[in-house]
Amino acid sequence: MARERKIDMVILGLLSHEDLTGYDIKKRIDGAISFFWKGSFGNIYPALKGMENQGLITKNDTSVGGREKTTYHITESGSDALKDWLKEEQASNELKYETLLKLFFGGAESRGVSVHNIEVFEEQIQKDLKVLKKYSEALEKSLDVEDHIYYSLTASFGIKTYEAYLKWCAKAKKMLKQRGGK
Amino acid sequence: MARERKIDMVILGLLSHEDLTGYDIKKRIDGAISFFWKGSFGNIYPALKGMENQGLITKNDTSVGGREKTTYHITESGSDALKDWLKEEQASNELKYETLLKLFFGGAESRGVSVHNIEVFEEQIQKDLKVLKKYSEALEKSLDVEDHIYYSLTASFGIKTYEAYLKWCAKAKKMLKQRGGK
DNA sequence: ATCAGCATGTAAGGCGTTACATGATTCA
DNA sequence: TGAATCATGTAACGCCTTACATGCTGAT
């Protein structure tokens, strides 16, 4: 099958802008990307090793103030792999929401339980939306940088969907509270 | 850690309504649930075996017209496990959209590539939205059945978010096409 | 007769998370 | 001095997907 690990593409994407250490990569992923993709050290370091063997990246061991660092750099072959991936049509888009699963089976408990679960979800989304909005506002100020349009578009995707979630939360709570459910 | 397999909860939820075979369970998951959760045979059958050992379900081998069938039934202990899960506050909600990942790194290729990727995404969402709307309309006709309010709420979540996606797609394409990007 | 659907399961592999292990530096 | 952050990695485990393997039934 040899399906490419998607984490490879995240790393190549990040390295296409600047050389980074594994630690840096983790931080970048935990930032704006975390809304639609995750990564962990146990994921990133083995991927870096594998990609180096494949010639997609090269490493550079340095020592900054006695502390050891391994910085990675994208190769031409790595850059090609990134572009090929961008041009592939197929993309897996997965949504796995335990909150919706619980709601779907909400009938096994009282309506209050479902209302509470929606409230917990709502609070989380409100928090995340605030973060996204701040990030987005910071980007708006520099849309003349070509890459920023892409960051801005992904951020606006998040904002729009989160706003839709919140509207739904209000409606859902209302529906569950009225019409005298058990 | 002993984290519960979520597929167990899906199965318990389905069995709380009716006795089902592994095959039936797969079909149910592929239906309305598939929007926010997935399951496969290689996932379901081992889970059924494990849950039987834990006493959450009981099995019943029958033979319908010469064909063998194993139907599962939820036990009181299984029903309790389902309710406990519903009452747990924590819920993992994950979104993993490769389309957004590609868009985020879109700067590595021409804008046309990103526009095309958005179009592919858009078409898929339009298809899925149609299916969801039909399902939702069928449910609206029988909202007096207590469980249907839950199915209807999860469906409306999908519809609202998909509609938000489509609005975003239109805006995103417009942004990428104007202002003379490379 | 053939194909779609019903029905059950296993095996291998892939991917990812969590926890563990280690140690340096910087700042309060 | 102690905590947070920088920095790299491994090991175990868990879970899921895909492919494989098998065979019956009902409809055309």
Question: What report would you give on this structure?
Answer:
The structure is a homodimer of 182-residue chains. Chain A has helices spanning 6-15, 22-30, 41-53, 76-87, 98-104, 111-140, 146-177, and strands at 20-21, 57-64, 67-74, 93-97. Chain A has a 3-stranded antiparallel beta sheet with strand order 1-3-2. The longest helix of chain A has 32 residues, at 146-177. The model of chain A has no long low-confidence stretch (mean pLDDT 93). The first copy, chain A, is an alpha+beta fold and 182 residues long. The N and C termini of chain A lie far apart (51 Å). In chain A, 36% of the residues are buried. Chain A is elongated and about 65 Å long. Chain A is built from 7 helices and 4 strands. In chain A, a hairpin with a 2-residue loop joins strand 2 (57-64) and strand 3 (67-74). Chain A has 2 domains: 6-87, Arc Repressor Mutant, subunit A, CATH 1.10.10; 98-175, no CATH class. At the A-B interface, helix 1, helix 4, strand 4, helix 5 and helix 6 of A face helix 1, helix 4, strand 4, helix 5 and helix 6 of B. Strand 4 of chain A pairs antiparallel with strand 4 of chain B, so a sheet runs across the interface. The first copy, chain A, binds a DNA duplex (28 and 28 nucleotides) through helix 2, helix 3 and strand 3.
Assign the CATH class of the largest domain in chain A.
Answer: Mainly Alpha
- Helical content of chain A stands at 55-70%
Shape of chain A: elongated
CATH superfamily of the largest domain in chain A: Winged helix-like DNA-binding domain superfamily/Winged helix DNA-binding domain
Strand arrangement, largest sheet of chain A? 1-3-2
Low-confidence stretches of chain A: none
Distance between the termini of chain A: 51 Å
